[in-house]
Specification:
With about 325 residues, this protein is an alpha/beta fold. About 40% of the residues lie in helices and about 20% in strands. The strands form four sheets. Strands 2, 3, 4, 5, 11, 15, 16, 17 and 18 form a nine-stranded mixed sheet that branches. It has a three-stranded antiparallel sheet with strand order 1-8-9. A three-stranded antiparallel sheet has the order 7-6-10. Helix 5 links the parallel strand 2 and strand 3.
């Protein structure tokens, strides 16, 4: 058993069955605190690690909405779960060229990842949550952040739990599953309050659904392969599909204005990833095929283009984010 598995088994013996929400939270806190899981040598690869074009277009969208809002000098760049800092680094390169000179603030709880991020962006200020952010307009990005927050699962209105059966972890019930995530709801509502009160815009990118779908979406990835969610606690990444309808509802409760959700591929093409790919290939002819492959991976429907969704949130007096009209 893994170290966390032993701790969870003892917790179940002493406290009783663990909710799926508590199990997922414990596993991911341990997982992210003890490793850098990104890239070919890790467990999964996120869009910013595929190619610089992704972060550049996020940065261009944030720079554009900032300029159309009057270029407030006190605005800050913020990111939830910034990974290795790759997205921020690419986005800020574009934003700085557009005149943005604000501070950089990260919500990151993993000591391991904070060290990686600080090496790339020494100016970053770290936070455990949104509460300690400065009172300033936000230009915020969250890529594959909400999917890792814990979900509750219910079977016929009864919450699903993890138990011990013959010394192994098992679910206490099966059937038609409904998921919800109080953790996601709380964070998006708080973000909405900040945007409503202080102004700004946020771009949320994650895999999930946007039409109220239901079902069991909890999954585990280890070494770039799907694995069983109750195997190797703390040694694999646990995620669940993000309900963008619920995110939009949380944004409204906080007082912000959510946009419609669209597919990642559609949004990136609308922002001009094709033109950016051509420009990069013209400067680096030897990289033409790798640039084209990266664009396909980010945008094609059978890769990341359709499964991943994009939604914006904004303060009521701020303009829409390009390609994400409210």
């Amino acid at each position: 058993m893994t170290p966390l598995a032993r701790a969870l088994a003892e917790r179940i013996r002493s406290e009783g069955p663990l909710s799926v929400e508590a199990y997922m939270e414990a596993c991911n806190v341990y997982y992210y605190a003890t490793r850098d899981p990104f890239g070919a040598s890790g467990d999964f690869t996120t869009a910013p690690e595929i190619h610089q074009m992704f972060g550049e277009l996020v940065g261009a969208a944030l720079a554009d909405v900032w300029q159309r809002a009057g270029s407030p000098a006190n605005a800050i760049y913020a990111e939830l779960g910034p990974g290795r800092g790759t997205l921020a680094n690419d986005a800020l390169r574009v934003m700085r060229r557009a005149g943005f000179a604000g501070g950089v603030h990260f919500v990151e709880t993993s000591p391991t990842l904070r060290e990686v991020q600080a090496n790339l962006l020494p100016e970053a200020v770290f936070h455990d949550d949104l509460d300690s952010f400065p009172d300033a307009p936000l230009l915020l990005a969250a890529n594959e952040f909400f999917d890792a927050l814990p979900v509750q699962q219910f079977v016929e209105d009864r919450e699903r739990h993890v138990v011990l059966a013959a010394g192994n972890f098992a679910f206490d019930r099966d059937g038609k599953i409904v998921e919800q995530s109080p953790a996601r709801d709380q964070i998006v509502e708080e973000l909405g309050r900040r945007l409503a009160t202080l102004g700004g815009a946020a771009i949320l990118i994650d895999y999930g659904y946007s039409a109220g779908e239901r079902g069991d979406t909890l999954q585990a990835v280890r070494g770039h392969r799907y694995t069983y969610v109750l195997d190797h606690p703390g040694e694999q990444d646990l995620t669940a599909h993000v309900d963008f309808v619920a995110l939009a509802a949380g944004a409204r409760r906080g007082g912000a204005v959510p946009s419609r959700a669209t597919s990642q591929g559609t949004w990136l093409e609308t922002l001009g990833i094709g033109a950016r790919a051509m420009a990069l290939a013209a400067k680096n002819p030897a990289d033409t095929e790798s640039i084209s492959a990266a664009r396909r991976r980010l945008c094609d429907e059978d890769q990341m283009g359709r499964l991943f969704k994009v939604m914006a949130m904004k303060g009521k007096d701020w303009p829409d984010v390009a390609g994400l009209e409210s």
